[in-house]
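Teaching assistant here, posting this on the class forum so everyone can see the example we discussed in section. The complex has two components, and the goal was to see what a joint structure prediction looks like when all of them are supplied at once.
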Amino acid sequence: MTAPSVAEPGGESILEPTQDLRGRPQGPVKRLRQQVKGAQGLSKWLLWIGAAITVIFVILAVFAPLIAPYGFDQYQSGGTRFPKQEGPSGAHWFGTNVRSVDVLSVVIYGSRTAIEVVLLAVCFSLLVGVPLGLVSGYYGGGLDRVLVLVMDALFAFPYLLLAIVIAFLLQDSVGSGVLTAAIAITVIYVPQYFRVVRGSVLSAREEHYVEAARALGAKPRTIMGRYLFFNVIQSVPVIATLNAADAILTLAGLGFLGFGIQPTEAAEWGYELQRGVADMGAGLWWTSIFPGAAIVLLVTGLTLVGEGLNDVLNPLLRRRTGRPVVLPKRMLPRHEEEPV
Amino acid sequence: MATSTGSLRRYALTRIALVIPMVLILLTLVFVLMRVAPGDPIQAALGAKLSPEQLAEKRHAAGFDKPMLVQYAEYLRQVVTLNFGHAITDNQPITTILKINGAATLELTIAALFVALAIGVPVGLLAGRLHDGVFDGFGRLFGIITYAAPVFFVGLIFQLVFSKWLNVLPNSGQLNALNNALLPRHTHLTVIDAIWDGNSAAFTDALKHLVMPAVTLGLLLCGVVIRLIRTNIIQTLKGDYVEAARARGVPESKVVWRHAFRNALVPVVTVMGLQVALLLSGAVLTEETFNWPGIGNRLVYYLTNRDYAAVQGIITVFALAVVVISLLIDFVNAAIDPRVRY
């Protein structure tokens, strides 16, 4: 811990609010909430706009069957087939595509697919990457060296190629649905969590509190689970949000190349764009502009949340506007207590 | 301190030694990935077309009936001699595919890098200089949106606007049919070949075809460049030597140009090296969008046709390209900045 008495160039002290000095330990979630509340200026706006966009997509995803006018692969209603590749109209706000499916419904159901895949992928990567990073960083030695090499190799690999190959290999055994896409994306992001967590463990394990725990006879499991975990987990929310944004792009890329989720399984934006290439040449813009715009919006939303969180959580980037700092009395040296 | 700063040669040797295990791991990874696939390569590619006897014969000819370790050694030998045999489906020599289509990818990526720097450096410099101003806000937004828009979506919009609506640029491909048939190939980089041949019509045609793919891929990268340069400028402008220059009474414009900008540009080399993976992934998507006859385009083709031999060769080259480029970038870096040497 750094001493809290450093003054910023602007003259404001970066002392935490007084109640923190009471020494009551706070959980990471509570601390995160407090820091988000304390966000100022641009970061605050980034965070809120991003959160609003993300929430809209989550609502679309959860209530897709209620919001979408038709099913994601429905090409007829009441016995009459929808027109093929018809422009936006009252009956089909976003038009229909080459399969005569309503584009609006595809876009709405697509958000469901995207969010499912991203949630799965982020959870899988956390479940694999964080424990591996903890163990590798804490024990070191041969296991650590091998893991670092493998992870570095995975990290150096062009990520989309890795995802394509994995998705391609899983096509026959797992199928070409949400799970395959999620696993393919997981493989790309595991090395990132591994690196970050391992790096923080390497510096944290030399800290006095870990040494003290070891001296008290705590088992490695306890040290990793109770002492290291909460101290190295701080940077994970930012990475997870930014990875989620990236994962949506990867999913769309997989779909665009034809190795993603098949249209019979679920609606997927990237696949729609692939089908849209031919339409674009003929000037039929609505089949790809709407799914594409959905990707851009959701990725922007998640990126804004990630960047906002980074601004808020990273003390080097954190900006505080002139908040008056009330020093507790016991902090002041005796002779300054009574102003002259 | 003088003794602890290593020589450039020692740095280069250590760095190369460190690359060897990395390359081995990557190659093993590629090999394992291609072999855990269900069914064997011959069956996957030709199973529907040939009789069991013919399949067995093909399998034997390609060496897929040998033990795994022998196959692995064989694969390593292929990599060292850079001879990957023939594609299973169309029987083309894989090395030829790599050479011809690799050149197209190289042309695209170099042009894209050029675009990324041409847009990214000025915007990043201005955004950092006018830190927290309106321009900075726009720059940041631009960076986020170019990142958030998938390359193929940007490409599709370009095709719609410039090819369909305005009709000023060709929709896709590398050359029009006539030039494609007539232009003699020396380097397989069409722009260079056209100059070589002194063919101005082919040259303009090649450039016209190159513009949209290069800008599409360049926009993807320029977000990274903007962000990087902006942060660097903000940091260098806070540096002691900048403060010192100001204190000496050096005019502000000179402080910014001579002292801050130049130093902020150095790390760009490093970070661009780290973006090779991004660049190659983006290239695959761009090639697919614009039907650019690059190596990524071929990869998708062979994957769809389940041609493991060709896929293995292409992926190996992608992996090696990443390692070699980052190695070269590290050398450049060490040459520029003595602090990075071991």
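For the discussion questions: Chain B has a mean pLDDT of 83. Chain B touches chain A through 48 residues (CB under 8 Å). Think about how each of these relates to the inputs above.
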